[in-house]
Amino acid sequence: LVVQVNKPVAAVQPTMWGIFFEDINFGADGGLYAELVKNRSFEFLKPMLGWKELRQTGKGKTLIINQGNEKPQNPRFARITVDSGSYGLSNEGFRGMGIQKGKQYNFSVWAKSGEGNLIMKVELVNTAGKKIGEASLTSFSNDWKKYTVSFITTDTASKGLLNVFFEGKGMIDVDMISLFPQDTWKNRPNGLRADLVQMLADLKPGFIRFPGGCIVEGQELETRYQWKKTVGLPEDRQLSINRWNTEFPRRSTPDYFQSFGLGFYEYFQLSEDIGAEPLPILNCGMACQYNTGEVAPMDQLDPYIQDALDLIEFANGDTSTKWGKLRADMGHPATFNLKYLGIGNEQWDEQYVERYRAFEKVLQQKHPGIVLVGSAGPAPNGPRFDYAWKEFKQSKAGLVDEHYYQSPEWFFKNATRYDNYDRKGPKVFAGEYAAHSKDDKDAESKNTWISALAEAAFMTGLERNADIVQMASYAPLFAHVEAWQWRPDLIWFDNLRSVGTPNYYVQKLFANNKGTLAVPILQYGHVLTGKDSIYASATIDQNKKILQLKIVNASSAAKGFMITIEGASVFRGGVWQVLSATDPLAYNTLDKPSYVVPISTPVKASGSRLKVLLQPSSFNVLSLPF
Ligand code: AHR
């Protein structure tokens, strides 16, 4: 093999390898968002979903009051009346609550006292009913106020429950009953699960596409994602049904709603924290085309376009503007430096292009610096997909978002997909992709080694064509092992643990060894893309002076190569990371997280030639300083 370090073929964009976050599979509520109380504000369709009355030692009742028009963003609260003894409510959390021993937990509640002087006793219990943390609150005012109390836990529980007892005789109104660990990501109140954010940070993503996916579209326009309802005080963010609540009845999650505690401000902050460009996607005036296909008429598109303009102001406007001020009030006076904006999720057809153009006309005029991302729908190519592409070629869309959920075979074959793409059209954003294996055992079992290997082969093709492909992200990102709607997924978790799939390590290896320029890696003058089951790409990092080779050996035999480097001085050692498994159906689980993980060995190389023996069924990343 010959690597031509002195003949770069394309610049690799800093955004090349990113992540796509959607609140699917309990990705946000019950996942990344660290709130432990489910239905904290009694706003689920069934107001007591997730709650149970506790009346072992007392007499009392709960009435759900709906103040409707008075407070449309948070209409309901619970009125608790206690006649005697101790009466309470128990919250089951999101498939239980993950509680760590010896850690601080912060309880809060909005309350307004009616009659009497009730004492509120808060306790965390494990599944055996053992108390593992407690605190109490007293002296409630007759006006709505927020009360907080913290406590340290005495034990770990993967399925803890929160009991809130009211003792004495009297009446009290309660709302927004909340429990967070102190140890959120960066210890932020209303924060994110630190272990899950760390998994994202470790990927070193170039961008975050959020908040979806289909949830941007909604089953119908009424339930589309509306970013303005996700900013401001958490108690004023209007809950919505999650689009994944009713899909796939066989695996239905009737308790799946969006509290928007993780909203657009938090998405921007997360992007900033982990050094990723924010890439918000907005509804284009169309609900999910796979579902109702409901559209806003063209003459009623203005509010949708205004949402886009206001979002740019929220992210980039100075603090004298309405939305820039809100950002500052929320704690971020500096701008978020938004550069990309997606219009529509997975859409196509005339109805889509027409709406896209209406956005484009206004946005290009008012914000020519913002790169617009259009959608071509799901690949492989079909008439609808081709239609959107044809249209985009004529316009100035910065990037076109293509999605592919296909078999591992398709991914291997499509490592050449972009080799002959039209170089004159818009750039490609591979916004959602995952190789789908047929295997079906545990929750995590669709994330097979063969799917990861096929994605690695495909990604060598993306990297070789970095002049045209400028962003790529696997999908979906997260899944709770007990509450998923879609598989495979990049990261699995339960209430306390998380595991990277083989696919996660493929993403990590590419993103952590990205480079700044793609350079040729050739065999007898030809790119390696499937011949003898070898797929390869190469980049150099001009700043660090490192050559990064990615080579997939998809065959069941070991393969030996002599690699010659042209155009740079000499190899001086380096690191060889190998991801491999003998069983194509191997996968990682929460109990066995390290079954398929990269193994690093030092490279003992000097001079301009290096001999390698690639293990059967392996993905190899060689980082070679020169
Ligand atoms: O990633 C899961 C779903 O796949 C996304 O919500 C949607 O865009 C696609 O159909």
Overview of the structural elements:
Helices cover 18% and strands 35% of the residues. It is of the alpha+beta class and 626 residues long. The protein has a domain at 51-181: Jelly Rolls, CATH 2.60.120.260. The strands form seven sheets. Strands 4, 5, 6, 7, 8, 9, 10, 11 and 12 form a nine-stranded antiparallel sheet that branches. It has an eight-stranded parallel sheet with strand order 3-13-16-17-18-19-20-21. The model has no long low-confidence stretch (mean pLDDT 95). Alpha-L-arabinofuranose binds next to loops. Alpha-L-arabinofuranose is lined by residues 22, 24, 212-214, 345-346, 403, 432, 475-476, 486. It comes from Paraflavisolibacter caeni. Residues 431-618 form the Alpha-L-arabinofuranosidase C-terminal domain. Its EC number is 3.2.1.55. Keywords: Glycoprotein, Hydrolase, Signal.
In short:
This protein is of the alpha+beta class and 626 residues long. Strands 4, 5, 6, 7, 8, 9, 10, 11 and 12 form a 9-stranded antiparallel sheet that branches. The chain has an 8-stranded parallel sheet with strand order 3-13-16-17-18-19-20-21. A 7-stranded antiparallel sheet has the order 2-25-28-29-36-32-33, with helices on one face.
What ligands can be seen in this structure?
Answer: alpha-L-arabinofuranose
Please tell me how large the radius of gyration is: 26 Å
The total count of helices amounts to 10
Strand content: 25-35%
Low-pLDDT windows of residues: none
Family: Belongs to the glycosyl hydrolase 51 family.
Protein name: non-reducing end alpha-L-arabinofuranosidase
Catalytic activity: Hydrolysis of terminal non-reducing alpha-L-arabinofuranoside residues in alpha-L-arabinosides
Domain Alpha-L-arabinofuranosidase C-terminal: 431-618
